[in-house]
Amino acid sequence: MHVAVPTTAAAWRRPAIVAMLAAFVCFASGAASAQGMEIPPRDTYQDRGRGGQGNKVALCVNGAAMMASFDAALARELAAALLLTAEVIEVKTWRPTEPLDYRLPLMLEEIYIQFAEQCDGFMGFTLAQGYPEWMTITRPYLTTRTVLVTTSPNYRKLADIPATRPLGTRILGGVDSQVAMYLQSMPEKSRWQRLAYYNNKVLIDRLLDGTVAAAFVWEPALYRATGGKPEAAGLHIIPSPFEPMQTELGIGLRSHDAFLSTTLGQAIDALRADGTIDRLLAQHVLAAPRPPGK
Q1: Are 211 and 166 in contact (CB under 8 A)?
Q2: For residue range 185-239, what is the model confidence (pLDDT) as tens digits?
Q3: What interhelical angle do 68-81 and 276-283 show, nearest 10?
Q4: What is the pTM of this model?
Q5: Residue 30 DSSP SS3
Q6: Which of 18, 62, 209, 274 is at 20 to 30 A from 81, Cα to Cα?
Q7: How does strand 121-126 pair with strand 56-62?
Q8: What is the C-alpha R_g of the chain?
Q9: Using alpha carbons only, what angle is made at residue 261 by residues 120 and 66, rounded to the nearest 5 degrees?
Q10: Handedness of CA 271, 274, 276, 277 (dihedral sign)
């Protein structure tokens, strides 16, 4: 599971919160797995109020992430569509954020505290299974793809690449698993070697230095790494022999904020329909500009 992970420095956490969570974690380490308890307890902040916010909605982003500027701009557009003012909060993380990636480094209990303390919603959560009961994700504001990229103009399809040349992937992703399964389905003598890298930056670097002949790269990372011009950087997209899984990103909310989830979903639909999200993607160098009239 890839979760959007916002963390802030421990200095802002109230001592009572830290003590409560520390006590709970100590207890849960011995009993939670046996009794199916949640970490943290669902009702820890059940009555946390964000009253007095008036016409504001607090939307958090991971300030160190590749998507931060896009997410912040989109948060403001979403709030405006709801006739609200966006309070965009950049959450600082003490764990490093992987470059050119969407994975956000927070644990679930840290995310829970963020919701309790300052976030009505948190941008950049993948739509995936396995989230706890207290959390929900809006419909996706962004649906992205992974593309097969090579530096050689002589490679028009995967079959053109000699089996002696390796392929690159980003490890721990759905597409990485797809690549592994695809290669296993092939005869061993015609099977490419798969080299998996921990983030998209290293993956693209290994493609550019010739370590791999082609790589399955998250498309927004490809555009950001090349200043929006992959072809000018010598990177060519070729057809994949299978349909790579898409990565969908939505806004993380607490599950009882059903009305906010519904209204944000409606705003997302409106901004997708009128081209605002496509415009922001191109503006923040995460996608190619959409041709006029489309």
Answers
A1: yes
A2: 999 999 999 999 999 999 999 999 999 999 999 999 999 999 999 999 999 999 9
A3: 150
A4: 0.81
A5: helix
A6: 62
A7: parallel
A8: 21
A9: 60
A10: positive
In which residue are the tokens 């969570």 written? 21
207 touches 237 (CB < 8 A): no
Provide the 10 A C-beta neighbour count for residue 82.
17
Question: Which residues, other chains included, contact 234 with Cβ-Cβ below 8 Å and sequence gap of 6+?
Answer: 151, 208
d(CA 166, CA 240): 15
Structure tokens at 188: 């061993």
Show the CA angle centred on residue 264, arms to residues 261 and 265, nearest 5°. 80
| Residues 75, 69: Cα–Cα separation, whole Å | 10
CA distance readout (Å), 101 to 29, 124, 219, 222: 31, 11, 10, 10
User: For residue 250, what are its two tokens?
Assistant: 């939505």
CA distances for 247 relative to 2, 118, 125, 142, 284, angstroms = 10, 27, 10, 8, 18
Assigned token pair, 125:
């959560």
Residue 50's Cβ-side half-sphere holds a number of Cα atoms within 13 Å equal to 21
If DSSP codes are grouped into helix, strand and coil, which group holds residue 268? helix
- Residue 236, H or E segment: strand 236-238
Count helices and strands (H / E) in the chain. 8, 11
Q: Which two tokens stand for residue 38?
A: 């949640």
Question: By C-alpha distance, which of 252, 216, 248 is closest to 235?
Answer: 216
Cα(64)–Cα(281) distance, rounded to whole angstroms? Answer: 18
37 pLDDT more than 90: no
Question: What is the rounded distance in angstroms from the CA atom of residue 18 to the CA atom of residue 82?
Answer: 35
